[in-house]
Amino acid sequence: MSGHSKWASIKHKKGAADKKRGKLFAKLIRQVEVAAREGGGDVESNATLRTMFQKARDNSVPLDTIERAIKRGTGELEGASYEQVAYEGYAPNGVAVYVDVLTDNRNRTGAEIRSVFTRLGGSLAEPGSVAWQFERKGVIVVPGEVSEDDLMLVAIDAGAEDIVREGDTWSVTCEPGALSELRPALESAGIEIQSSDVTMLPTSSVSLDSSEAAKAVLRLIDALDDHDDVQDVYSNFDIPDEILQAAG
């Protein structure tokens, strides 16, 4: 699991995610809306919408709220027009950062993202200078109580590439296009799904072995996460668990 994924998991366990549920809902709804606009409102034929729909449901977004977002995306209801933009940069200590954004004002958002990087000791980089350090993958998280043999038996046949133990959970990775088949296969086998999403996993990592270095990076990551237009932040830091826990 990437360092940022571990950090997000720790924050969730400590209740920080609940405090920002309203903001999380808004981001998920925007993702659903854009997926419907770009690929149509049919969840069965639009794989991206299907993934965003399930992600919203996994986070307890009400069904009628999701359905309205789909209708805004298809033009059945009036809504804002969002543009997808990616920003690439570096946090302190050379940590690579890739930021996915949905915005209705590219100039405003770009200036604000640049300000966050600069204010917290990072810097924006040219497009393509960071993206090559990440791979887009589907990731499904299941409880650690599931036996490795049972999980592997189902997952590999359904398109999984790797299964890794991450604390008290299993992380199952696959190609993004395989996610729509892998999740139903696991569910049909009676395996509980904690979350599933298409994400960016780092191909290499930057080790941060001091609390000062960790906190400097996490301040920037958290500030980007907190921006209304930012949908996801990916980074390649690797922080020892005891330092990561303390930073929370």
Features:
four-stranded antiparallel sheet; Alpha-Beta Plaits; 46% helix; 25% strand; globular; alpha+beta; 3 domains; 248 residues; Arc Repressor Mutant, subunit A
What this model shows, in words?
It is a single chain. This protein is α+β, with helices and mostly antiparallel strands and 248 residues long. Helices cover 46% and strands 25% of the residues. It contains ten helices and ten strands. The strands form three sheets. Strands 3-1-2-9 form a four-stranded antiparallel sheet. A hairpin with a 3-residue loop joins strand 1 and strand 2 (95-103). Helix 3 runs antiparallel to helix 4 (47-58), helix 3 packs across helix 5 and helix 9 crosses helix 10 (241-247). The longest helix is centred in the N-terminal third of the chain and has 19 residues, at 21-39. The radius of gyration is 18 Å and the shape is globular.
Helices and strands in order, then pairings?
Elements: H1 3-13, H2 16-19, H3 21-39, H4 47-58, H5 63-74, E1 83-91, E2 95-103, H6 106-119, E3 123-124, E4 134-143, H7 148-157, E5 160-166, E6 169-174, H8 179-188, E7 195-202, E8 206-207, H9 211-225, E9 230-235, E10 237-238, H10 241-247
Helix pairs in contact: 3-4, 3-5, 9-10
